[in-house]
Amino acid sequence: MSFTEELRRETDHVFQAIYEHPFVRGIAAGKLGGGQLIHYVKQDYEYLNAYMRVYGIAISKSARREQIAMFQEQIAFILHREVQPHRCFCAAAGVDEELLRGHPLAPSAHHYIRHMLTVAHEGTLGEIMAALLPCPWTYLEIGRRLLDEVRPDSSHPFHEWILFYGHEAGDATAKFRAMLDAWAEEAGEAERGRMKQHFMHSCQLEYLFWDMAYKLEEWPVSPAAAAL
Ligand SMILES: Cc1ncc(C[n+]2csc(CCO)c2C)c(N)n1
């Protein structure tokens, strides 16, 4: 079994819980509140900015051109292609996507972003890839399973979103997995253990991100300054 097959097997229950999460069920049914979609897009816009910064740190730790090329391609993908699923959610919610930029992070988005940035600063390139991989991999599985379960046509409000991730997250997942498997062959036991931990942590945080959007999660006490 390859290293990433092992990672996938050990997190199968988390992948399953994500697929069963009420937000993902809402995508399947075409039924989500406008507030939930807006909260997701606001938080995901900031998440994707952080994700690109992590790629930047990964580039600074890359020894080979193929690695640099792969990270650079992924930055371009996020900048130019991943606006499409956000537009799909915004259209369903009836809001202009430009209004959803620059919002403060909710607790779970904050947690996920800090996790990725900590691994990026402190870890090896293999550890960074392990922390990043659940992002395309969980979305690829959601997209593929929804394509199969829902068989959405253009009348489904999230038709474009499902098609996008069912097809477009495959490339990043396959490239990441190949690089991570090659890295794991050379890594020692201790580093492989850290890679597993980061992968599991990111899978759990993917679940929490959906939960945050579904429950409109905010800080328990408003961070706004007290009235003077
Ligand atoms: C919380 C969250 N997790 C995953 C994705 C999906 N995603 C983000 S970047 C990327 C491509 C990887 O280079 C993919 C598939 C998302 N949008 N938001």
Fraction of residues in helices?
A: over 70%
Please, what is the average pLDDT?
A: 95
Calculate the terminal CA-CA distance, rounded to whole Å: 62 Å
Q: Low-confidence parts lasting 5 or more residues at pLDDT below 50?
A: none
Proportion of residues in extended strands: under 5%
The CATH first-level class of the domain at 57-214 comes to Mainly Alpha
Give the overall silhouette: globular
Order of helix and strand elements from N to C terminus: HHHHHHHHHHH
Q: How many strands?
A: 0
Largest sheet: none
Count of individual helical segments? 11
Radius of gyration: 18 Å
Let me know the CATH homologous superfamily of the domain at 57-214. Answer: Heme oxygenase-like
Structure commentary:
The mean pLDDT is 95. The chain is mostly helical and 228 residues long. The protein has a domain at 57-214: Heme Oxygenase, Chain A (Up-down Bundle). It is globular, with a radius of gyration of 18 Å. It has helices at residues 3-10, 12-20, 22-29, 34-60, 65-80, 83-93, 107-122, 125-132, 134-150, 159-186, 189-214. The longest helix has 28 residues, at 159-186. It is built from 11 helices and no strands. The ligand Cc1ncc(C[n+]2csc(CCO)c2C)c(N)n1 binds at residues 44, 47-48, 51, 74, 77-78, 82, 135-136, 139, 169, 172, 206, 209. The ligand Cc1ncc(C[n+]2csc(CCO)c2C)c(N)n1 is lined by residues 44, 47-48, 51, 74, 77-78, 82, 135-136, 139, 169, 172, 206, 209. It comes from Paenibacillus haidiansis. Catalyzes an amino-pyrimidine hydrolysis reaction at the C5' of the pyrimidine moiety of thiamine compounds, a reaction that is part of a thiamine salvage pathway. Pathway: Cofactor biosynthesis; thiamine diphosphate biosynthesis.
